[in-house]
Amino acid sequence: MREARLRLNPDWLVLMDDDARPSTGTITRFRQGLAAGHWPGAEALAAAVRFPGGRICEMNRPWVNPFGRLSVFLRVLAGGGRAAFHIPDSAYDVQAPRPLDGTSFVGFFVSRDGVARAGYPDGRLFIYGDDVLYSLGLTQAGGRLLFAPDLEFEHDCETQTAGAMPRPLWKVYYLHRNAWFVYRRVAGRLFFPPLMALMLPKWLSKGRLLPADERRICRRLIRLAVRDAFHGHLDRSHAEIMAWANGSDGAAVGADGALGGTNGAGTGRPAGGDR
């Protein structure tokens, strides 16, 4: 984002994963919608994201903060679960903008004013939660985020399942460390401690269906993630995380951050600083 701003200084940026793409006509509709004033006051827009087959992509479903609206909070307490604070399927079929608190980075349009208000995503997060923290930070700072169902994206990620154990296992660390920061931001000071009192036992018992060696590694990574999140640490090197995921305790990481070997499962690298 920073590089695009420096090189092009655009009025708007659009973000997406490398396995996502705008549907035919989406960018044209976006430009036409801006010219027609379809989204007055909006500093960011969330597209409707679907799988290639047309089903709604659950991991990219926009949401409202359940801790910010009493009616939504009560629906969650009544057993509404995830559906209580994510927009319903019917919102995808009504060609009208809808106010949001947060969304994903697939089909995320953000204006120059939005970037000025929210800054840039924290690159130290690497993966997971950066979109939640960024979009929620924008709206909590007073920015207006709207769901624009006529802007459609396709996300070719049907092999991924919301809530499944991520693979490779090094992703477990980032998922739980960043979830801590997400919950703290969403719940606020009042609700964060009781929320984590509920979540931590669930986290620490994960991996029951994994083979014994993988279960041990998974739970060690979760404990490490919780410890780092509790202390606010975002500077642990990716090489060290990889070492833990390979069954070490990080001692295999050299002074230069290099590993003596990997499990061949993929070694994505985090970018330092803001994006």
Describe this protein's structure.
- Helices cover 40% and strands 12% of the residues.
- It is an alpha+beta fold.
- It has 2 domains: 2-155, Spore Coat Polysaccharide Biosynthesis Protein SpsA, Chain A; 170-245, no CATH class.
- Strands 1, 2, 3, 4, 5 and 6 form a 6-stranded mixed β-sheet that branches.
- Helix 6 packs across helix 7 (212-230).
- The longest helix is centred in the C-terminal third of the chain and has 35 residues, at 170-204.
Keywords:
six-stranded mixed sheet, Spore Coat Polysaccharide Biosynthesis Protein SpsA, Chain A, alpha+beta, 2 domains, 275 residues
Produce the secondary structure layout.
Layout: H1 2-8, E1 12-15, E2 20-22, H2 26-36, E3 44-50, H3 70-80, E4 98-100, E5 108-111, H4 112-118, H5 130-140, E6 145-155, H6 170-204, H7 212-230, H8 238-245
Parallel strand pairs: 3-6
Antiparallel strand pairs: 1-5, 2-6, 3-5, 4-6
Helix content: 25-40%
Distance between the termini: 6 Å
What portion of the residues fall into strands of 2 or more residues? 5-15%
Overall, the morphology is: globular
Structural class: alpha+beta
Low-confidence stretches: 254-267
For the secondary structure, the number of strands is 6
Q: Report on the biggest sheet.
A: 6 strands, mixed
CATH architecture of the largest domain: Alpha-Beta Complex
Mean pLDDT: 90
Question: In CATH terms, what is the fold-level topology of the largest domain?
Answer: Spore Coat Polysaccharide Biosynthesis Protein SpsA, Chain A
Rg is 20 Å
